[in-house]
Specification:
Elements lengths: L19 H4 L16 E3 L17 E6 L5 E8 L5 E4 L7 E5 L5 E11 L8 E7 L7 E3 L8 E2 L3 E6 L8 E6 L6 E3 L9 E9 L7 E5 L2 E7 L6 E8 L5 E6 L8 E8 L4 E6 L2 E6 L11 E3 L11 E10 L5 H8 L4 E6 L8 E2 L8 E4 L3 E3 L23 E5 L4 E4 L9 E10 L8 E7 L4 E8 L4 E7 L8 E7 L9 E8 L4 E6 L2 E8 L12 E3 L2 E3 L2 E3 L3 E11 L4 H8 L6
Antiparallel strand pairs: 1-2, 2-5, 3-4, 3-6, 6-7, 8-22, 9-12, 10-11, 11-22, 12-21, 13-18, 13-22, 14-15, 14-21, 15-16, 16-17, 18-19, 19-20, 23-40, 24-25, 25-28, 26-27, 27-40, 28-37, 29-34, 29-40, 30-31, 30-37, 31-32, 32-33, 34-35, 35-36, 38-39
């Protein structure tokens, strides 16, 4: 039972000086000197009972109420969030709101009641514990397709996208027999999400990767440009289709697609490789239940998928952005790491036991030592950039090489090294790293004397006179005689070539649109380039900590390597 603040002020019938209004229990806001009672918070889906409930991506209703009958609004905020205000429908009425947790774990909801005079109650703290999001209600991959009806145009003989932990994929040949069907427990008129790893092998027409009564996920043709695009489409109650498109599919290249339909917000959102590419507002899907079909449209007669599919999931909840980012992440795979601390027998070991770097010419491992602690007449040594050793090259035929070539994955490649140059000897072009193929270099990382700059060049194909893309950045003014960290990153997903220099993320970026990386056949060269006539552009200086990766190094991993660490 609600109480009136006006009847809780200690007034008795002996207080003859009270006004008639006060004696009847009625007062104005100006007479109000007392804050309302602190509110009570409740939630059926997320009760404050020390247990975890429901989960990430699942809505819950929260009710905020106060025993005071003159409360006109409530202020609330989640731990770390911004304050929100809800107005009561009438004085003393409770309010409610819907909340969609974006992560699992514990959080707090703070709430206060506000009366007509502007008095604010004490704060109520409501503790919420959220489970991890519910698992997919439908899942398929070639290794776990029990119960699926599979057409003869599907073969489970392909490798999944590298750097994901997904071992296998199925090949769909684009014919009428290229399909997989399985039961679905999702009503697509309600909240749902669908995700899949997809790789088209042809883009001459729109194709469906995943479909059900109520949605389709795949490729389409951009009506304005005629170019292929990714597509998430839903039939709507008004008889139309809400289609969200974005991104640029490339034949032979993997992408991670997620479509999310939020029936409460009437929105359809579409993510490609973890990035939100489009949103359709005011969307009311017709939806429905039915068979989940892979590799074909819902009618099973058209738009058959030609390419690879794997890791298909359908959820009966919102798959939230953080989950989407994680699902789309491709971890770079280290191929080689040479710390250049020692070179027994002229070979510097690879960190994980791979092929060593073999030193040639007068190349040596330099370790800086001096006795300045005990000898005041000593000459201070220049110490290695990382650890206790560097590769020392004199520019006159010195280099190192290894058959552990840089082998790009379908995500791209990354190479890094620490370099130190002497300004007096940096008078000609010099190569830090190069990766030969049969006819040209996959990439070259070099110093250009005329512009006093670092330069990375990537060839689009392994052919004589192949087109190339170049990125460059000036040597830092303090760079002479100092450690400079260099990284070349080719991102197949975004078709970008990036050059990183020390703390500059990124020093230069260039588009390599429409080009795929290729696999070189030659040995990795450290400290020179090779041509048909032999070695050239020998480096005079020091090199340390050479890393090669299949895939794309992000800023966090680059920062670790720049500081001389490893990403183990």
């Amino acid at each position: 039972m609600r109480t009136s603040k006006w009847r809780r002020t200690g007034v008795t019938c002996a207080a003859v000086a009270l006004t008639a209004a006060a004696m009847t229990g009625v007062a104005t806001a100006a007479d109000d000197t007392e804050a309302p009672q602190a509110p009570v918070v409740s939630s059926h889906e997320y009760p404050d009972d020390s247990n975890e409930h429901d989960g990430t991506g699942s809505y819950g209703t929260f009710v905020i109420d106060s025993a005071s009958d003159d409360v006109v609004s409530y202020r609330y905020e989640w731990m770390g969030g911004l304050p929100q205000t809800l107005t009561a429908s009438e004085p003393g009425a409770a309010v409610s709101f819907r909340w969609l947790p974006q992560t699992h774990g514990a959080t707090y909801l703070y709430a206060q009641a506000i009366d007509a005079a502007g008095h604010v109650s004490a704060r109520t703290t409501y503790f919420v514990r959220v489970r991890s999001g519910r698992a997919a209600v439908s899942h398929w991959d070639p290794q776990h397709d029990s119960g699926a009806d599979t057409g003869t145009g599907v073969t489970a003989d392909a490798q999944g996208p590298t750097g994901t932990g997904i071992a296998s994929a199925a090949r769909f040949d684009g014919t009428d027999e290229a399909y997989v069907t399985l039961d679905s427990a999702v009503d697509t008129a309600k909240i749902f999400s669908v995700g899949a790893w997809v790789r088209p092998d042809a883009l001459d027409t729109g194709m469906t990767a995943v479909s059900q009564a109520g949605f389709s996920l795949g490729t389409a043709t951009n009506s304005a440009t005629g170019a292929p695009t990714w597509s998430f489409a839903l039939p709507t109650e008004d008889g139309g289709t809400a289609r969200v498109t974005g991104g640029s599919p490339e034949a032979g290249e993997w992408a991670h697609l997620v479509g999310v339909y939020d029936a409460e917000q009437h929105t359809a959102r579409f993510y490609v490789d973890g990035d939100l590419v489009g949103t359709a507002e005011n969307t009311v899907a017709t939806g429905g239940t039915g068979t989940l079909r892979l590799g074909a449209g819902a009618d099973a007669a058209t738009a058959h998928w030609h390419g690879l599919l794997t890791e298909v999931n359908v959820w009966d909840r919102v798959f939230v952005p953080a989950e989407i980012t994680t699902a789309a992440t491709r971890t770079p795979q280290r191929q080689g790491y040479w710390d250049l601390e020692t070179a027994p027998g002229g070979q510097s070991p690879e960190f994980a036991g791979g092929e060593p770097l073999t030193l040639a010419g007068d190349a040596s491992i330099y370790t800086g030592t001096d006795d300045c602690d005990v000898n005041p007449d000593c000459t201070p040594a220049t110490y290695p950039m990382v650890g206790s050793g560097n590769l020392l090259l004199d520019g006159d035929g010195d280099y190192a090489t290894t058959p552990d070539a840089v082998r790009p994955s379908d995500a791209g490649f990354s190479v890094t090294a620490h370099v130190r140059l002497d300004e007096d000897t940096a008078t000609h072009d010099m190569t830090v790293l190069s990766q030969p193929g049969a006819h040209t270099d996959l990439f070259t990382l070099r110093y250009v004397a005329a512009s006093r700059s670092w330069e990375a060049v990537v060839a689009h194909e392994d052919s004589v006179g192949a087109p190339t893309t170049t990125v460059s950045a000036a040597v830092a003014p303090f760079g002479w005689g100092e450690d400079e960290f260099l990284a070349v990153v080719y991102d197949e997903r975004t078709d970008q070539l990036r050059l990183y220099v020390d703390y500059d993320y990124a020093a230069d970026t260039a588009s390599v649109s429409g080009q795929d990386t290729w696999t070189p056949t030659g040995d990795l060269q450290v400290g020179r380039s090779v041509t048909a006539d032999g070695g050239t552009d020998y480096l005079a200086g020091e090199i340390d900590e050479v890393h090669t990766y299949a895939g794309v190094l992000d800023r966090t991993r680059l920062a670790i390597l720049r500081l001389g660490g490893t990403d183990d």
